């Protein structure tokens, strides 16, 4: 199979971990006889420095001319005090909108060898296996107006939570499709006791559920969901929610498995290429030190193989290589627990790459 992949390393550890994903994909290509062509683009702070904008038009053109996009992470203290149109995170919001990436899938699963690096007890996190489906191109992060203003002569501010019903419907349908292939349970998270938008969300979920009699639908208020994630995360199969709620809950869920550095995500497009990125940011505190955990990025590349290229066997080979590498005791600092000897980013990448080639 021949595929063209746009790689957007971004800032900070984004550059270090994307190199890992590429090495792993090259190993997959070698083992299975595929040809992956990589083309590189700029986004975030790096793009601001070089082109004066967080998402240059050439980057979007590159993405649209490829079969899938891999993104590292953006941001850093260097750009924190910029006006908002010159902030790296603007590049993220813009690429989601321009590639119509309406759904962000964040699988949360338990690695038995990492039980000791979770702050929660093993009995609580054992066998955890669910997916958060976050709406990505609407809701509070995109609604207009979003601005500083004045009200009755005093300083004020407004953000807007706006959805068209069709946007709610398509993300909930995706959650039901996923659940129908998994444990057949959808938890729809909202704040229907307060927000009108959540009441439409809830009604829409009921309408979609009527077409999936085999899938059970449960509604949960977002504050309760935040608590249930810690009390009993095993109850979840597919959780679907609004953009900001999903942002917050998925970061919370990330601690279940031990480290942000372990969690991949997939952003699906209504047309065009899908985008795959780790859920973590650019980690300025450890950037450039060759100690970042590359696994979230590598598992994102595995999702790309599965969801964009239909290469299930190859995706599983990467996931197995990660699991075997962890089982062998290999750890980067973030997942080391009490262990004193840790691997660098490059060493971890080499271990996982070796595990892929060894399986052959
Ligand atoms: P962060 O995810 O970059 O880091 C949070 C903590 O987790 C840090 O202590 C970091 O060292 C650690 N960490 C994250 N990824 C790791 C990895 N792969 N291996 C080992 N440790 C890891 O979030 P933070 O610090 O809130 O944000 C830093 C910058 O990243 C900000 O500019 C923020 O806006 C941006 N950001 C970008 C995102 C993206 O590109 N999708 C997502 C979240 C934040
Ligand atoms: Mg976040």
From TrEMBL:
Residues that hold substrate according to the record: 96, 106, 134, 223
Gene designation per UniProt: leuB
Protein name: 3-isopropylmalate dehydrogenase
Leading EC class: oxidoreductase
Main subcellular location: cytoplasm
Cleavable signal peptide: none
HAMAP family: LeuB_type1
NCBIfam families listed in its UniProt record: leuB
Gene Ontology process terms (BP): L-leucine biosynthetic process
Residue stretches making up the Isopropylmalate dehydrogenase-like domain: 4-352
Metabolic or biological pathway: Amino-acid biosynthesis; L-leucine biosynthesis; L-leucine from 3-methyl-2-oxobutanoate: step 3/4
PROSITE patterns: IDH_IMDH
Species in which this protein is naturally found: Peribacillus glennii
PANTHER family: 3-ISOPROPYLMALATE DEHYDROGENASE
């Amino acid at each position: 199979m021949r595929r063209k992949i746009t790689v957007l390393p971004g800032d900070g550890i984004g550059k270090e971990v994307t190199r890992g994903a590429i090495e792993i994909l090259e190993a997959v290509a070698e083992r299975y006889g595929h040809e992956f062509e990589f083309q590189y683009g700029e986004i975030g702070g790096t793009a601001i420095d070089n082109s004066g904008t967080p998402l240059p038009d050439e980057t979007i053109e590159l993405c649209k001319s490829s079969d899938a996009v891999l993104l590292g992470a953006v941001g850093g203290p260097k750009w924190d005090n910029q006006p908002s149109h010159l902030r790296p995170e603007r590049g993220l919001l813009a690429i989601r909108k321009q590639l119509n990436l309406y759904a962000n899938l964040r699988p949360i699963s338990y690695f038995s060898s990492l039980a000791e690096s979770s702050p929660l007890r093993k009995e609580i996190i054992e066998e955890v296996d669910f997916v958060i489906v976050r709406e990505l191109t609407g809701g509070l992060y995109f609604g207009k107006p979003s601005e500083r203003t004045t009200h009755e002569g005093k300083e004020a501010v407004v953000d807007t939570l706006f959805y068209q019903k069709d946007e709610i419907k398509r993300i909930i349908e995706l959650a039901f499709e996923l659940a129908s292939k998994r444990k057949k349970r959808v938890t729809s998270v909202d704040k229907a006791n307060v927000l009108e938008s959540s009441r439409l969300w809830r009604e829409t979920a009921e309408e979609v559920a009527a077409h999936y009699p085999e899938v059970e639908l449960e509604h949960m208020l977002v504050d309760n969901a935040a608590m249930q994630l810690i009390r009993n995360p095993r109850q979840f199969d597919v959780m679907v929610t609004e953009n900001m709620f999903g942002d917050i809950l998925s970061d919370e869920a990330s601690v279940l498995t031990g480290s942000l550095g372990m969690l991949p995500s997939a952003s699906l497009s209504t047309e065009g290429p899908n985008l795959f990125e780790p859920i973590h940011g650019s980690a300025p505190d450890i950037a450039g030190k060759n100690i970042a955990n590359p696994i979230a990025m590598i598992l994102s590349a595995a999702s790309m193989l599965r969801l964009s290229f239909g290469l299930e066997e190859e995706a599983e080979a990467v996931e197995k290589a990660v699991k075997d590498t962890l089982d062998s005791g290999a750890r980067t600092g973030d997942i080391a627990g009490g262990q004193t000897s840790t691997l660098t980013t490059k060493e971890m990448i080499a271990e996982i790459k070796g595990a892929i080639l060894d399986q052959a």
